[in-house]
Amino acid sequence: LFRSLTEKSCRTGDSEACAAPLQFSLKLATIQASQISPTERNGTEMEYKLVPMDRSHLAGVAELERLCFSTPWNEAMLEEELYNPTASFIVAEDPAGEVLGYAGLHVVLDEGYIDNVAVRPNCRKQGIADRLLDVFCRFGQEHLAFLTLEVRPSNTAAVALYEKHGFQEAGRRKNYYEAPQEDALLLTKEFRHDPA
To answer: Is 194 exposed, middle or buried (0-12, 13-18, 19+ CB in 10 A)?
Structure first.
């Protein structure tokens, strides 16, 4: 549904209006969050930074999709998002450019939809997903009425992360996921803006 709304907005010429100031503000938020951060992998401290996704990340993000999701996005689908004015994808990369995690966001008017937040299994519980999500939450606080996403109820670590950032259950989508089949929790975070 969200993807069809995005495509409709682009076809009717509203993409620049509905995306603004998506690209600039998210790039700024990413830069503000992109200071090198230490984390550990296999007991060894490592560093990573958050950067906007570009073509050099596509293979790594597609690999991460296959590792983390039963219906993964492929490289062609991810590449399309590089040219989508309503989309912003950010990547956590190590100094060698390896993709450790990523997150994707689409915006229509003042509504934000988080597509995926994913981190390599051997890099989890190091705060990477927390920082990726924080970029979108800070952008939402400045520009959006709400952020929304779907998550498997069985993914308790992800549910706990979203709840930590203020997301609350708004409903369920019956049999939304496949392999294995499962409902989706619909989680939403609303933003209050002081009147000008």
So the answer is: exposed
Q: Do the strands 146-151 and 111-119 form a parallel or antiparallel pair, or are they unpaired? A: parallel
Helix (H) or strand (E) holding 89: strand 87-93
| Residue 159: strand pairing partners | none
User: How many CA atoms does the CB half-sphere of 188 hold within 13 Å?
Assistant: 10
The residue annotated as part of the active site, out of 65, 81, 93, 150, is 150
Is there a catalytic annotation at residue 176?
Answer: no
Contacts of 110 (CB under 8 A, 6+ apart): 143, 144, 145, 146
Triad 130, 51, 9: Cα angle to 5°:
90
Is residue 42 over pLDDT 80? no
**Which residue matches tokens 């409902």?**
183
In whole angstroms, what is the distance from residue 129 CA to residue 100 CA?
Answer: 10
**Would residue 150 show up in a list of annotated catalytic residues for this protein?**
yes
**Taking the model in full, what pTM does it have?**
0.79
78 and 63 Cβ atoms separated by less than 8 Å: no
Residue type present at position 19: A
Kindly report, residue by residue over 131-144, the tens digit of the pLDDT: 999 999 999 998 99
CB–CB of 11/31 below 8 Å?
A: no
Pick the catalytic residue: 162, 163, 176, 178? 162
